[in-house]
Amino acid sequence: MPKVSVIIPVYNVENYIERCLDSVVNQTLQDIEIIVVNDGSTDSSKEKIESYIQKYEDKIKYVEKENGGLSSARNFGMPYACRRIYSIFRFR
């Protein structure tokens, strides 16, 4: 079971999501899970995330929901976390 859960709400961030995911998956703490919540993106964010899921399937969980805003996306991701939420990134 991972020690840390990171929730990343995503909405139309195709220009930034790769940098964000690179940063999180390359942390020195290896025992983490990353929960990416797609909050109804209409750009290519999903496709970019899918490439990371293939490379890091043991670390990344991906969920989608209709657009509801930052807090809604964060709250939607919390039940998917195995551990206490340590950090929440905002990319919007």
Find the count of extended strands (DSSP E, 2+ residues): 4
Q: What's the CATH architecture name? A: Alpha-Beta Complex
- Whole-number average pLDDT? 89
- How many individual domains? 1
Morphology call: globular
- Which structural class fits the helix and strand makeup? alpha/beta
The end-to-end distance, rounded to whole angstroms, is 29 Å
Low-confidence stretches: none
Strand order of the largest sheet: 3-2-1-4
CATH superfamily: Spore Coat Polysaccharide Biosynthesis Protein SpsA, Chain A
Count of alpha and pi helical runs: 3
Main beta sheet, described? 4 strands, parallel
Order of helices and strands: EHEHEHE
Task: Summarize it.
With 92 residues, this protein is α/β, with parallel strands linked by helices. It has helices spanning 17-25, 45-55, 70-77; strands spanning 4-10, 32-38, 60-64, 85-88. The model has no long low-confidence stretch (mean pLDDT 89).
Describe the model.
It is globular, with a radius of gyration of 12 Å. It has a single domain, classed as Spore Coat Polysaccharide Biosynthesis Protein SpsA, Chain A, CATH 3.90.550.10. The chain is of the alpha/beta class. The relative contact order is 0.32. It has a four-stranded parallel beta sheet, with helices on both faces. The longest helix has 11 residues, at 45-55. The chain contains three helices and four strands; from the N terminus they run βαβαβαβ. The mean pLDDT is 89. The chain starts with a strand and ends with a strand.
